[in-house]
Amino acid sequence: MNKNQKLSKEILEKHNINTSYYRIVILEQIIKSKKCLKIDEIYKTLYDTTSTISKATLYNNLMIFEKHNILNKIIFNQDEIYYCLNDGNIYLYFKCEICNNIYKFPIDLQCFNSINKEGNQINSYNIASYGICKKCLK
Ligand SMILES: [Zn+2]
Fold it and tell me: How far away, in angstroms, is 45 Cα from ligand 1 center?
């Protein structure tokens, strides 16, 4: 088992999720890439690595990871779904409309604290923004 696979296993164990081979390799790909990935991108890398995984297996496990807050799901343009590792911070996700890169910026927690202070409970976030990144503006 490599370093990222060990880390994946630890994360799954911490959330009391059974550590199957597929779960470990799915999470490994997301940790390894260090960025937000589309389901198709995750699937392609996994297929190149395992050559056996089905899309249904991937979808089901991504849903489990999302439910346990291991992954953040970000939706751009209503139907482009991206996943990235939840590191405990809240980000504003910025998508460049030219190069399609996604950048993340930490958000001040103040406004979320006021939602909680009123007695509400936030379970998930989906904060997307669009524009042109500094590289493409040059
Ligand atoms: Zn760009």
Answer: 23
* Closest C-alpha to 87, from 35, 45, 16, 42: 35
pLDDT tens digits, residue range 23-42? 999 999 999 988 899 999 99
Q: How far is the CA of 22 from the centre of ligand 1 (A)?
A: 33
pTM of the model: 0.84
- Answer whether CATH 3.40.109.10 is correct for domain 91-137: no
In tens, the pLDDT along 43-82 reads 998 888 877 889 999 999 999 999 999 999 999 998 899 9
**Which of 74, 71, 52 lies closest to 61 in space, CA to CA?**
71
The CA 95 to ligand 1 mean position distance, Å, reads: 8
Q: What's the CATH architecture for 3-85? A: Orthogonal Bundle (1.10)
CA of 72 to the centre of ligand 1 (A): 22
